[in-house]
Amino acid sequence: MKILLTGATGYIAQRLLPVLLDAGHQVVCSVRDASRFNKNKFAQHAGLEVIEIDLLDQENLSDFPNDIDAAYYLVHSMSVSGSFSESEELSARNFVKAIDQTAAKQVIYLSGIINDEKLSKHLLSRKKVEEVLSTSKIPLTTLRAGIIVGSGSASFEIIRDLVEKLPVMVAPKWLLTKCQPIAIRNVVEFLSSVLHQEFTYGKHYDIYGPDVLTYKQMLLQFAEVRGLKRHILMVPVMTPRLSSYWLYFVTSTSYALAKNLVDSMRVDVVAVTNNLSEKLHIDLIPYKRAVAIAFDKIEQNLVLSSWSDAIGGAYSKKTIKEHLSVPEFGVFTDKKTLKTSNAEQAADRIFAIGGRSGWYYANWLWSFRGFLDKVFGGVGLKRGRKNQTLVSVGDSLDFWRVIYADRKEKRLLLYAEMRLPGEAWLEFRVEGDIVKQTATFRPLGIGGRLYWYAVLPFHYFIFNGMIKKIAT
Which is nearest to 138 in space by CA: 31, 190, 66, 75? Predict the structure, then answer.
């Protein structure tokens, strides 16, 4: 069966893709930027094709495949700042125009549970997208999920940050809101199992785990799984803006995502019961077990995808290919070289940089820079990395994005997603027995030039120490 998978670099799609390939399907992955898609992870599968389609651009739909049997619509924009509702609706409308010209027999859409009378902006957008997709002549199957629990999911990582960093939490009253979390493993099972199940055509189903919990209960049960004692103090008044800033500064989330999550967390997300799991023979995973499974994946470095891999904001205006060519003119550079006695070990250190490994020298200064970035609305250092030894193009790495990564070449190129008056690249490579480290900064106006000179003493201190740790 030939299947179109939209949003193929996203968190859910990256979990679903190997399941579809293992089942013997031919999968066409639709992405906005093909250079972000790591085909090496699926090299053993011959039935994989990657195409570039921007669903926001109607003129860009000419490469839409016509001979597909089914399609998954997994496009989502909640982590993007600004008005995402309009872009999500436009994307859905363009998708309908394109899918109606194909031989597809089913469209499968993952939405959110929308059973409360008063919906958040995020859930209203999900509902609107569902309405648009249902106008297609192709039968639509909609699966509606609440909080998804899995290694790398935004909800999981936020809860993890709160529980592991705060022994005592002063939290807003929306922590008493009810939800029905579902394990990512179950989500993927539902998505793959409804494929070409005709009884699901033209219908929607809530998908959910067996536990109905408040967010407070989720935090405390998470702590139990981790063997931690935590105390939560509720305050009667905390505005959505203050709640958003609270999540933004304490956790690894972006402010845009924190704002939309807080908006959604004020609404009960409890499923309408159905027998879909019984029909599809899916065993629902309890919340605490889902948390334990997630940590098994983390400890074994088997996290397949992370919410932070999705690129949003200003960065998304350019593709990775456009950032790949590091400028040589009109830039400031800091170049360091050092001889190493073991090139392989030096390369290992380069490809393990960031996350729990830190930056090898003056980590407190890196942390302070991450704090300043958060203060000014940036991503900060808390995103870390999803795998402690492997990196792929498109991965987030603290407040950098991986633009190029080749272990055989011993070369790693990063692009800065921190708040800067300009653009910055950081490149590491090993040539023979020489380690090369280059920081490049393209300033924006006088402010950018003043910024470079202001941080120059710190760069000298940090970058010298960093290359020494890498090389020795």
Answer: 66
